Amino acid sequence: MAIVVNIDVMMARRKMSLNELSEKVDITPANLSILKNGKAKAIRFSTLEAICRVLNCQPGDILEYIPETKEETDHL
């Protein structure tokens, strides 16, 4: 997938565990783990907003676009 989730980077910068973040965001540790490991297909804006609020960051600090193939960059 071309979207990389960097929640683990922000969690490390804030010295916050997965369980602590999941409690503060009100999301299950299992669902947060799926998101953290890049296996999620989508994220609700309300969840993204809560994560950004708790980690004191911007969505771009968490989500990153990395083209997978040359064709993906040709149309840019």
TrEMBL record:
GO terms for molecular function: DNA binding. Residues 7-62 form the HTH cro/C1-type domain. SUPFAM superfamilies: lambda repressor-like DNA-binding domains (SSF47413). This is HTH cro/C1-type domain-containing protein.
